[in-house]
Amino acid sequence: MFARVVAPDMPGFGGADKPDRFVYTVDGYARHLAGVLDGLGVLRAHLVLHDFGGHWGLAWAADRPDRFASATLVSVGVLRGHRWHSVARIWRTSGLGELALRTSTLPASRLLLQRGTPRGLPRDAVERLYRSLEDPGTQRAVLRLYRATDVAAVSEDLHRRLQGVDRPVLVVWGRHDPYLPVADAERQRETFPGAQVVVLGDSGHWPMLDDPVALEQTVLPFLARVTAGAVVGAGSR
Predict the structure, then answer these.
(1) Which of 43, 64, 125, 207 could bond to 203 as cystine, CB 3.0-4.6 Å?
(2) Rg, the chain, Cα only
(3) Domains delineated in the chain
(4) pLDDT tens digits, residue range 214-224?
(5) What are the tens digits of pLDDT across the range 129-161?
(6) A Gene Ontology biological process annotation (predicted)?
(7) Confidence (pTM)
């Protein structure tokens, strides 16, 4: 399989800029992704999405169905009726979210990130995630994004706009995901009736970290079948 792979750090995360004036919403990120793809000359994209990146990428797909070739949804999707998990509820609470991010420690973050991961996570990966959340710009992005997002309303809108768009979809979920229950994996067929659903029995929310071999063995055959152009991944990391 030969493909052009683009894996951008999105504004507010990783090595990307963290501008105060960026619109930290699902629509804001979808517009940014559109600009990235347009700037790179990507005409059709096979989306590989994780976590909040799922909402951003699917919003782009709903805006541009003619350029949407396929989606691989890893621990994310159209989360109809979803209620925010406990960490998100803290981040969405004014004052409490700021305090939680400012006072977090590496041991506490390790315990939090290891939830629902029978295999555990690599220590260096946990430290990278923790260090990224120490950045004031990333903290600002996280708080603005979570506070601006009604995930159930966003998902209903995505469901309405995407349910008639017939594209190959692979759904990959960790059975032990503590943030997004595994029952949501099968529910992706409400929006994507032909979706292939794979549950990884030894994974949590971070399959690319806790069982990368199983994830690779699931995703690559799917992409080999459907790839006809570029592959683009977008996610918060």
Answers:
(1) 207
(2) 17
(3) 5-235 (3.40.50.1820)
(4) 999 999 999 99
(5) 999 999 999 999 999 999 999 999 999 999 999
(6) acylglycerol catabolic process
(7) 0.91
